[in-house]
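Pair request: fold both.
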Amino acid sequence: MALNTCSEGISFGRELEEASAAFYEELAKLFPDHAETFLGYAAVNKKNVSNVQRTYFGVITDGLEGCYAFNLEPGDYVIDVALPAGISLADALAKALALEETIVRFYNDAAEQGKGLMADVPRAFSLIARKRGERIDELKALGAR
């Protein structure tokens, strides 16, 4: 089922943020040497949800919500948050990179599609995508150590 309304897009973004926050919390337990970094990512994910929701509630109207802002297929943005027992740090980081790339793609796609009808929510999505892009660079650097 496609995501069409702003509310649906934000709800799906919240699901991605919550799932990835749980993923990073689990990584923090599995790799205590990097727990501070992973827990920091989880905290930012939770802030992303509240920031987007605050932006949405600050600008949305019934008239706008009745419009269709997106045509996004949730199946195009499936993230794998399963961490098998005994996973190595290298494999966990590879999963984290794939997860981040998928979430960045969702936020960029949603921002692009929504900018014709809205300004604030797509701007918030673009900001999250940019920050998560920086996280990708951090994860790559972490794997290079």
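--- second member of the pair ---
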Amino acid sequence: MKPQTDERALLEGLATSDKKAVETIYKENYNMVQSLIINNNGSSDDAKDIFQEAMIVLYEKVRSGSFELNCQIKTFVYSVSRRLWLKRLQQQNRYAAPGDSMENVVAVEEDLEEHEQRNAEYEMMEKAVSNLGEPCKSLLEAYYLQKQNMQVIAANFGYTNADNAKNQKYKCLMRLKKIFFTHYKNGNGDG
């Protein structure tokens, strides 16, 4: 069992996009996510997608500065990946109850309430993104989901240079936060 401090160092590394930390988190968690997806009607490409999305969720949480990880990184990544995959299966009408084999790898139950909370936050974040409007929605998706660099984004979105695109991305993020927190305040009592 690795000590808690190790995990904290990894998360701090992730927040600053430290290559070594990102690689370590990838190495330690990717196979687990891959088995989860492949055992539940998915392909290795699906596993890459889901893992990437889970990493973005973790990255955003860590960057927010207020995120306290009360479980192992492994538990968090697994739980988020599982939710994302179930959601995708439901959207594709390929829903099948996941096999129990993976349940034993991570004791998800103890953090269930916390994960429910995170899931609600994630859904609110999705709602916030869809309320952003263009070009912000596409710009943030291009950066976070499609992993395009600022030069490419500047060219695609018609900005004169990468710095202008970066400024626009920052403004979009500020708007997203504003929408998210409005939702968060208003959405807390909804069933």
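Observation on the second member. The chain has eight helices and no strands.
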